[in-house]
Amino acid sequence: MVARRLAEDSVQPAEFAFNNDNAQWAEKRIALYPVGRQQSAVIPLLMRAQEQEGWISRAAIEKVAAMLDMPYIRVLEVATFYTQFQLQPVGTRAHIQVCGTTPCMLRGAEDLRAVCQKKIHPEAHHTNEDGTLSWEEVECLGACVNAPMVAIFQDTYEDLTPERLEEIIDAFAAGKGDTIKPGTQIERHNSAAIGGRTNLLEEPTATREKFVPPPAPEAPAAPAAPAAPAPAPTTAAKPKDVTAESAPALKEPARKGAKVSQAKAEGERLQADVEAKANGKPNTAMREGAVGSEAEGGKVDTGKAPGKRTRAVPAEGAASAGTAKAPVRKVKGADPAEVSPSADKGGIAPLFTAPVGPKDDLKLISGVGPVLEGKLNALGITKYAQVAAFKKADIARVDAVLNFRGRIERDEWVKQAKALAKGGVEEYRKVFGKDPR
């Protein structure tokens, strides 16, 4: 990168000041930054100074540094680093920047540079004799598809030929630069193909209509509030007298409309208890000819609960119960395979006879966890060989008891158990290609 230095003292102005409009703009720009960050406005203020004078002088740098309370060297570093800042005087009517990067160079940028050297000055960053025009070569200006091109201040002029650039320079030198239209200088639409369109040549035939969404459905009406429950009847206004029909001591209804006082009705009830020899205790004596649950036979367990005393079941056609005492028999002890203490307490009854010996780790079967292993042990399943020997009937029984819904076949328990029973974890790895679980 070429070293960038300030212009010679002979061309440096003695002082610099923003005009009124630019001074107000600068104060507003500085106020946009938070307290302690106002120095971030250095680039906008330098650009404004360049727009006003055409280039950045030493006096302009010192003015910006004073406005932002920055060291002079810091502002000088910014001005000399960015090539957008002109450190030498430029033409008062036009400063032409010729793009010299690869696309423009391939399309004739060297011819454009030769035109500038002929019509303005042989060297860049020098003005013509009148001081109205100057030029320089710059890096890419971002219009490669319209190469070659130049920029004059903030406008670009594209698709140039040497002849067209000479016409543009002459117009600016005469003070008629506003008659030149920026952009492409040939019959071309922006950056479209020079020879015209090459695709999408057919006119569209489809008609499109704007989609209008249907209206949203109306919200359903809120359900009616339930009716308030009727108040419970009270006895606040009822008389304490009762009718004859409701008196507990009366044997039969009295005449319609007859009434008895509460005290009289209570006395008649007590009198009825005396006549019936009632003493307030429940009567446990059995009635003669009692049947059903009141009979003595109805109090005796005739089931088959193991270890309980029971009566013999009457022969078919005989009376089911009576006062005669039936002989007592002892129920035969139950088979442990049919009834277990866990089943008697509401647990899981065993379906298989657990083999002798230590239990296998059923959790190595994929799909069996600690809880499920406990349930399988309760069913009498403690060995891999038992699971490996499962038939369809066995699978159906276990599915029904534990509500597996096909898990045994889905997770291939039988296949896993066969591998584990045959050779343990090593055999499992050979068959399934992975460790169990």
TrEMBL record:
What is the protein name for this chain?
NADH dehydrogenase
Extent of Basic and acidic residues compositional bias: 265-278
Question: Where are the compositionally biased (Low complexity) regions?
Answer: 312-326
Q: Which cofactor does it need?
A: [2Fe-2S] cluster
Q: Name one GO molecular function term.
A: 2 iron, 2 sulfur cluster binding
Organism lineage string: Bacteria, Pseudomonadati, Pseudomonadota, Alphaproteobacteria, Hyphomicrobiales
Family statement: Belongs to the complex I 24 kDa subunit family.
Gene Ontology cellular component list? catalytic complex; membrane protein complex; organelle envelope; organelle membrane
Record InterPro entries: NuoE-like (IPR002023), NuoE_dom (IPR042128), NuoE_N (IPR041921), Thioredoxin-like_sf (IPR036249)
Reactions mediated catalytically: a quinone + NADH + 5 H(+)(in) = a quinol + NAD(+) + 4 H(+)(out)
Which superkingdom is the protein from?
Bacteria
Q: Which NCBIfam families match?
A: nuoE_fam, PRK07539.1-4
**What keywords are assigned to this protein?**
2Fe-2S, Iron, Iron-sulfur, Metal-binding, NAD, Translocase
Is Acetylation among this UniProt entry's keywords? no
Region of interest called Disordered, as start-end residue ranges on this chain:
177-342
The yes or no answer to whether the keyword Iron-sulfur is present is yes
GO biological process: one example? inorganic cation transmembrane transport
